[in-house]
């Protein structure tokens, strides 16, 4: 059904370039949030092994062009034992590294120097803070998460994040329930004012992200009998301008076990990239350009309203 919308507006069905490798280092996390679409938790056992990290570096080195950014996600990517080594290898290749940090991981027992490590290597931080109210954050992400998140953001500011051009700190907002996010620009202004006034915290940009109808959020929708209503909201809000900028046109997603997907959402719904299913079926990442993207009904989450991607709205 999604493809008929693309055809109607003559929007391409293939990847246009490859700027970003998004790599899921595993499902181990110190949290177990309600909306988590990777179903990560402290019990997660699927962690990327050294052999897979090495294959990724080999494929980067074999390509004629390097990806601009490697976006590390999880779980809590920092909890993978190879995380720091891999960051150094990427920086040595002059690739920007982005860490999707849940903030509370800074207070795990073996991560005391994590913030300093990230700052030293100029790793960009993208952190979830679904609201600046303690009640809402703790409801979605667990008791005590808000207080630790505020403490971690202050620590990043003290290290120069959002104060120094080389240290970027972005925040992510997603709605609590089955509705589209509000305007990213307006919400960013509110977040900036309130986080500064109430907590003395600064950050660079706020990304609003639509909740995708998959995994835990999908189960929630079905339990509340709101799935059909939410899909109708997404479909009715199809925006061709947003669709033209969807992240899969310039990104691929790699799972902890070396499979290739057109995005993280396809990874979580087990829809591998057509014809190029894993790191051993390509000679370099250049092979992923001009390749057919695998679409599904959850793609309406990316094209609705102002659009949605791991980097926020698309229009
Ligand atoms: S912090 Fe992120 S990865 Fe961990 S459980 Fe929450 S949403 Fe999932
Ligand atoms: S869900 Fe993935 S494949 Fe579908 S539009 Fe969004 S980024 Fe592209």
Please write out the topology.
Layout: H1 2-8, E1 20-24, H2 50-62, E2 69-73, H3 83-92, E3 96-101, H4 114-120, E4 124-128, H5 134-141, H6 145-158, E5 169-173, H7 184-199, E6 206-208, H8 215-223, H9 227-236, H10 240-244, E7 251-254, E8 260-261, H11 264-268, H12 300-303
Parallel strand pairs: 1-2, 1-7, 2-3, 3-4, 4-5, 5-6
Antiparallel strand pairs: 7-8
Give a short synopsis of this structure:
This protein has 315 residues and is of the alpha/beta class. Helix content is 34%, strand content 11%.
Please identify, by name, the CATH architecture: Alpha-Beta Barrel
Mean pLDDT figure: 94
> Can you tell me the CATH topology?
TIM Barrel
Number of strands: 8
Summed up, the domain count is: 1
> Which structural class do you get from the secondary structure elements?
alpha/beta
Can you give the helix content as a percent range? 25-40%
* Sequence stretches where pLDDT stays below 50 over 5 or more residues: none
- Biggest sheet: strands, sense, closure? 8 strands, mixed
- Give the number of helices: 12
């Amino acid at each position: 059904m999604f493809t008929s919308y693309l055809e109607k507006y003559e929007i391409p069905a293939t990847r246009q370039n490859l700027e970003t490798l998004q790599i899921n280092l595993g499902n181990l996390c110190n949290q177990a949030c309600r909306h988590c679409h990777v179903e990560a938790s402290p019990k997660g056992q699927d962690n990327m092994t050294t052999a897979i990290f090495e294959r990724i570096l080999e494929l980067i080195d074999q390509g004629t062009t390097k990806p601009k950014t490697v976006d590390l996600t999880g779980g809590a990517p920092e909890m993978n034992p190879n995380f720091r080594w891999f960051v150094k290898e990427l920086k040595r290749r002059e690739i920007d590294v982005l860490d999707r940090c849940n903030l509370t991981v800074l207070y795990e027992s073996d991560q005391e120097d994590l913030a300093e490590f990230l700052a030293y290597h100029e790793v960009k931080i993208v952190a979830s803070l679904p609201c600046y109210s303690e009640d809402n954050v703790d409801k979605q992400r667990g008791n005590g998460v808000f207080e630790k998140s505020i403490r971690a953001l202050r620590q990043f500011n003290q290290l120069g994040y959002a104060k120094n051009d080389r240290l970027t700190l972005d925040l992510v907002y997603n709605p609590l329930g089955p509705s589209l996010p509000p305007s990213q620009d307006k919400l960013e202004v509110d977040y900036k004012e309130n986080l500064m006034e109430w907590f003395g915290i600064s950050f660079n940009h706020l990304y609003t992200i639509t909740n995708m109808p998959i995994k835990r959020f999908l189960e929630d929708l079905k339990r509340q009998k709101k799935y059909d209503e939410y899909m109708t909201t997404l479909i009715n809000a199809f925006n061709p301008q947003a669709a033209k900028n969807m992240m899969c046109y310039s990104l691929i997603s790699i799972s902890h076990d070396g499979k290739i997907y057109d995005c993280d959402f396809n990874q979580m719904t087990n829809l591998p990239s057509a014809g190029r299913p894993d790191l051993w079926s390509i000679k370099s990442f250049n092979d992923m350009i001009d390749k057919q993207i695998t679409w599904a009904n959850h793609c309406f989450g990316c094209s609705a309203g102002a659009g949605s991607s791991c980097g926020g709205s698309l229009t």
